[in-house]
Design goal:
mainly alpha; two-stranded antiparallel sheet; 8 helices
Length: 293
Amino acid sequence: MRSSNPVFSRRGFSRDNGSAGFNAAPQAGAAAVGTVPAPVTGNPYANNPYAQADVQYGVPQAPPTADRMTMDDVVTRTAGTLGTLIVFAALAWAVLPVDEANLGKSYGIAIGAGLVAMVLGLVQSFKRKASPALILTYAALEGVFLGVVSNVVDTHIADGAAMQAVIGTMATFVAVLVAYRTGLIRVNRRFVGFVMAAAMGFVLLMAVNLLFAAFGGGDGLGFRSGGLGILFGIIGIVLGALFLALDFKQVEDGIRYGAPKQESWLAAFGLTLTLVWIYMEFLRLIAILQGND
C-alpha cells in the first residue's frame, strides 16, 4: 500500500496487506550445526523492504532490533522539524514588515524562500536516504514563507486568520489521529485509490486555474475565490486530512516492518508536508470567508 505523500510513496513503508511483523516469526534458515539447511518457504521477511539477507544461507532476515524506527523517534523528529518551521515563521513575521512601504520586499523574500524550500523538498523526496540537514533547512525556509504569507493575510485581508488556521490544522490532526486509532478510518486499497484519484483531480484543476490566471489575468477559472473558492478550500482540507490518515498508516507499517531509525526523519518530513498543506488550505479558506474585499 502506497501513500499519496511523495516522501512515503517511495520508501515502501507498507505492502499490500500491511501485516508483517518481526517478533512472532521463526528464525529463517535455522538448522542443526553441521547440516545443510532445508529450503525456506513462506519466509515472513521475503517481502519486507527492510529485511537483510542472511550471510550464510542467503535468505531474508529481520532488520537489527537496535536500529529499528520507533514511535518515539517519529514523534521526536516531527517535533524538531515542526519546531524549526514555527520558529522561523515567527522570526519572519517579526522581522519582515508587511506595511505598504515594505510589502514588496518582504513578499519577494518569502517567495524566494518558498521556491528554494520546494526545490529542497523535491531533492529530499527523491533521495534514497534521509538528510536531517536538508529536512531542517527545508523547514526553516518554509517557515519564512509561511510567516510572511500569514502576516500578509492577517494584516491586509482577514484579521486573526493565521491563528484560526493554526487551530484548524491542529484540530484536523487530532481528529484524524483519533479516527484512525479508533478504526473509524480504515486505510485499505479502496481508500488509497479514492484519495489518489481525488488528489490528482484536485491538483490538475488547480494547475489549470493557475494557467488561466497567469495568461488571462484575474482569478483564472475562479476556483480560488468566491463560492467555488470556498468549495475547493473545503475539498483541499478534506484531502489533507485523508493524506494524514495515509501518513499514519505508513508510519505504523514502517514501525511494524522494522524500518531503520533514520527513516523517522522521512516520516517527520512527510507529516510536515501534509500539515503545511492543511494550514495553507485553512488560511486560504479563511481569507475568502472573512476577506475585507
